[in-house]
Amino acid sequence: MTTFTPEALQSIAYAAYPGVLNRKKQIKADRKAMPWFNLLEKLEGSAPVAGVSAAGINGPILKYQLTAEFDLQGFERRDVLGFTESPIELETQFQWANLHMGQEFVHEDIEAACGLTIVPNQSRSTKIGKVDSESQAQVLVDYWMAKLEAMDDKFDIAFDQMLLSDNSANPKLAQGLDAYLPFPAATGFVTTGSIGTKLRASSSVLQHYAEIGLTYGAAGTLRAGLTRARRQANLSLRGMEMGTDGVDFIMAGAGAIDRYVNYCTTNNIQFTTTLADKKRMADIGFPDTGVSFEGTPIIHNPTFEVLDTLLAPAAAWTRRMYMLNTKTWQLSYAPAKKKVMSFPPDAGDVRVTRISLDSKAVLLPKAPNANAVILLAS
Fold first, then answer.
1. Phi-psi category of residue 374: left, alpha or beta, with phi > 0 → left and psi -120 to 50 → alpha
2. Per residue in 283-297, pLDDT tens?
3. Which of 79, 88, 97, 297 is deepest in the core (most CB within 10 A)?
4. Would you kindly state where each structural domain of the chain is located, as residue ranges?
5. Cα angle 336, 178, 317; round to 5
6. Residue 116 and residue 30: Cα distance in Å, rounded?
């Protein structure tokens, strides 16, 4: 029977993680799309580690330049001229989140699954052990590969949910979209709460617009509400170095998309279908991928329905719609802290091998007022 030391397990794990993980085309039928997480991966940017501030926050600092409050004065001859002191900067700081996911392999379970023997408490040398054949080594590699891939994917799933949620109740977690763009009780600008270390009420640049309870039946308020929300989000684009495209990403729950389609059909809104093969056919389908507003696709995020089950919020996720300016968001990792896999030494009092995934991350809202949220009526 082939035997492996704990060090051999670690060496095989390292080999399996970067190489074997993507070599096999396994069918993973339970994997839902994660458009928010996928978008943030493209918007990843560096951020300084900074340090602990007077407020006890350890994380990146964002500065917003504000419109100065000066008076343009008319005068003649010996009129007294006015001079004003005006602050032009707003500063807020965001807390790094230390994140960990761990997996434990019981040696006896590995022996049962792979038909191998794990020798505990061996020296940590350069030797990784001897195998009887390549096929036997591959048995263990395949076993680790499946476990590692499942852990790697579960980390992404949990992180996606975290980056959407309001995690204010647990400051150790990364804050998500719902913390930065919460839903108020009524339509208007959100002025309560805080973003980072600053109260929203301290400046309009921290206040986003919300449309609440839009109706979708005959003569409903959906079209007018969406138009207002996009207009408000696009008001302050002139001074943004990140671009002037405005809202370019609309994300919604299944319930919001269904209500949008209902509004279109009830109010006889015209829509266009493409007949690529030039054939005429009857099709009553209205695909999610064919829904848009003012030319911007409305993308269904399946995680919204998952969060409804997990959190049961007052503003149901499935009825939500987010109008986002993608250039105003950044997902940052501390240097060398993006999803790092490590293998702690085996515990001396229990026969297990452990694996860790660690990240140090923060989601940064670079211009909250350039985004808007919409909640459709139930």
1. beta
2. 666 666 678 899 899
3. 97
4. 3-31+46-55+95-163+334-358, 177-333+364-376
5. 120
6. 31
